[in-house]
Design a protein that fits this description.
Shape: elongated
Low-confidence stretches: 134-166, 597-603
Pfam family, one: STAS
Domain STAS: 524-684
Largest sheet: 7 strands, mixed
Radius of gyration: 35 Å
Subcellular location: Apical cell membrane
Helix content: 55-70%
Distance between the termini: 26 Å
Structural class: mainly alpha
Number of domains: 2
Number of helices: 28
Keywords: Cell membrane, Glycoprotein, Membrane, Phosphoprotein, Transmembrane, Transmembrane helix, Transport
Strand content: 5-15%
Family: Belongs to the SLC26A/SulP transporter (TC 2.A.53) family.
Length: 688
């Protein structure tokens, strides 16, 4: 077979062609394509199937919007900020992601882990500025007006060194730190998008994503249990949160609120029953059942008129301030202080968003653009930072609720934003009596899909043991250490598994299938015939520096011959023979005659005269791999054993040519390289 001649392109011409293609000229078509790529909503919104999608989008948007309100109270405490700032964050993030995001289902907004990372930086900077972290602001008053907001920590500090006005209270300085941190995180994410670093999402394998989702679901479930049974325990932070939280739960189980326990039991039974019926009869239902919305409305009415908070001390959402604060540019000097802290925040936020986007895109059979997701999340941080908001990310719990309530597109995000806007302006008092245990029930029931992954472990193990191990490690690390570290552990561990599998791949000696020209593993198949005087060796991995030694050891073990040891042994005997001949002794060191010496040089007769290496599974060779093949070629040649290569792909052949395996003029190439194992075997049989 003749190889095609590939003309090498002139790099200078290629670069000039690319520059001409990406010229700075602004034509209407280029502007249109740019806008449609930068704002994906322009592509899918005109094709929106209103009759088919609107009901699910409205229902999911309403439910997520209602869930966002009480979550803002808890997550803003993690961030060390007031709940109103979480509502701002949720409102702006949903609008911006609707315009720029490529995922149809993820819910972008406040997220516990991101809130915690923001809170750690805020607390550190407050301490450095001299504020007392224990001096908390008083609870929100009943009128919920920002105009009546009085800062409890109004001690004046000289903060001109960080660019803040001479007098700034604790809350003013805290939100200043949070917005500066958020702005820098968004800038990092946009820069990563410009430099096309979204490719990192390809390292999130299915096993890593499933393990991450399951581990994060366990963490979320654990965090909701205290609301489920109505006990007051400190929110655990840092590594090992799941274990610490469960220890605190069992220590305080005697303090469980009976009203919350009964409410939770009723809500879970209703939600699970409705979900199971919905799954069973979904082909008969024209739209998903709005069970979560009905449960929230009924539970709020029961809690309000039954006075569950006053009579039974059941935990409720409470009052939330209303109104908007004028926008403000984040302080540049504060950005410099938090620049390093913003980098891990940007990476974690992006990885969470892309991993969830990939997971739900796979589940619902569509694709996302990782680099555009980077831009979307980046601007979800940059723009809201001017409106007193902090960092955002996709949230697993709300995304699961979103999909379970029939979400079809990011129209649901706009609906959620409108719900948050109504709460910000008018409806905050209506959610005062909504029990937190009801919201916990909705979140926990929405996790059932991810938790069902445990039932798939036996089937997963049967299909692939290594992928199951990756899933278990990722899930365990996400649950027992922390979610962001769990995702990192999963990615690193999956890569290590690939490296280990290429370092110690399958190796085999092949036998011939009778009356055919095909060859297979002698240990795996019955009735294979050995080829006289020929050994056929298969190596099922690329040959590179990390598995060179394993390649040689496997080859020597399977062929039962180490050419280096054999050559050394022969040299040793030849040296002894010369010494005996010089002394005039015609008998060798073994007491044999000279004629018998040759037989004694090879105590175990070499039973083959040709070695065929099946290269069909060797996808590439590095310099070490080429040198290894040259080494065995030389070593076996010293023993009068020819080495023949079969089934090499063009990349491997080119590497061998460049490495000088076939000699300078490639004259012996036709006697060393064959396009099939059978051709190599026939050539070996014809050799004398």
């Amino acid at each position: 077979m003749e190889r095609k001649t590939h003309v090498k392109a002139n790099r200078k011409e290629v670069m000039l062609a690319k520059l001409r293609k990406k010229s700075c000229s602004c034509t209407p078509q280029k502007l249109k394509n740019f806008l449609m790529d930068f704002f994906p909503v322009l592509r899918w919104l005109p094709k929106y199937r209103c009759k088919e999608y609107i009901w699910g989008d409205v229902m999911s948007g309403l439910v997520i919007g209602i869930i966002l309100v009480p979550q803002a109270i808890a997550y803003s405490l993690l961030a060390g900020l007031k709940p109103i700032y979480s509502l701002y964050t949720s409102f702006f993030a949903n609008i911006i992601y609707f315009l720029m995001g490529t995922s149809r289902h993820v819910s972008v907004g406040i997220f516990s882990l991101i809130s915690l990372m923001v809170g750690q930086v805020v607390d550190r900077e407050l301490l450095l500025a001299g504020f007392d972290l224990n001096d908390d602001a008083p609870p929100a008053s009943g009128d919920g007006s920002l105009q009546n907001d009085n800062l409890s920590n109004t001690t004046a500090f000289n903060l001109t060194i960080v660019g803040i006005n001479a007098e700034c209270g604790k809350e003013c300085y805290a939100i200043g730190i949070a917005t500066a941190l958020t702005f820098m995180a968004g800038v990092y994410q946009v820069l990563m998008g410009i430099f096309r670093l979204g490719f990192v999402s390809i390292y999130l394998s299915e096993s890593v994503l499933d393990g991450f989702a399951t581990g994060a679901s366990l963490t979320i479930l654990t965090a909701q249990v205290k609301y489920l049974i109505g006990i007051k325990i400190p929110r655990s932070q840092g590594h090992g949160m799941l274990v610490i939280t469960w220890i605190n739960i069992f220590r305080n189980i005697s303090q469980a609120n009976l009203c919350d326990v009964i409410t939770s039991a009723i809500c879970i039974v209703v939600l699970v029953t409705a979900k199971e019926l919905g799954d069973r009869y979904k082909h008969k239902l024209k739209f998903p059942l709005p069970t979560e919305l009905v449960v929230i409305v009924v539970a709020t009415l029961v809690s309000h008129y039954g006075k569950l908070n006053e009579v039974y001390a059941s935990s409720v959402s409470g009052a939330i301030p209303t109104g908007f604060i004028p926008p403000k540019v984040p302080e540049f000097n504060l950005m410099l202080r938090v620049a390093l802290d913003a980098l891990p925040l940007a990476i974690v936020s992006f990885v969470f968003t892309v991993s969830l986007s990939e997971m739900f895109a796979k589940k619902y059979a569509y694709t996302i653009r990782a680099n555009q997701e980077m831009f979307a999340v980046g601007f979800c941080n940059i723009i809201p930072s001017f409106f007193h908001s902090f960092a955002t990310s996709a949230a697993l719990a709300k995304t699961l609720v979103k999909t379970s309530t029939g979400c079809q597109t990011q129209i649901s995000g706009v609906i959620s934003a409108m719900v948050v806007l109504l709460v910000l302006l008018f409806l905050a008092p209506l959610f005062y009596s909504l029990q937190k245990c009801v919201l916990a029930c909705i979140i926990i029931v929405s996790l059932r899909g991810a938790l069902r992954k445990f039932r798939d472990v036996p089937a997963r193990y049967y299909v692939n043991k290594v992928d199951t191990l990756v899933w278990v490690v990722t899930m365990s690390a996400s649950a027992l250490i922390s979610t962001e570290i769990g995702l990192l552990v999963g990615i690193v561990f999956s890569m290590l598994c690939i490296i280990v599998r290429t370092q110690r791949p399958r190796t085999a000696l092949l036998g011939q299938i009778q009356d055919t020209s095909f060859y297979e593993d002698d240990l795996e198949y019955e009735n294979l015939s050995t080829v006289p005087k020929v050994k056929i060796f298969r190596f099922e991995a690329p040959l590179y520096y990390a598995n060179r030694n394993y390649f040689l050891k496997s080859l020597y073990r399977l062929t039962n011959l180490d050419p280096n040891l054999e050559a050394a042994r022969r040299k040793k005997y030849e040296k002894k023979e010369k010494q005996h001949l010089k002394k005039g002794n015609h008998r060798t060191a073994n007491g044999l005659g000279i004629g018998e010496t040759t037989l004694q040089l090879v105590p175990k007769q070499i039973d083959f005269q040709a070695l065929v290496v099946d290269c069909s599974s060797i996808s590439f060779l590095d310099t070490t791999g080429v040198n290894t093949l040259k080494e065995i070629l030389k070593d076996y040649k010293n023993l009068n054993i020819s080495v023949l290569l079969a089934c090499c792909n063009p990349s491997v052949i080119d590497s061998l040519k460049r490495g000088g395996y076939f000699g300078k003029d490639f004259g012996c190439m036709q006697e060393m390289l064959f396009y099939s194992i059978h051709n190599a075997v026939l050539f070996a049989k014809d050799q004398k």
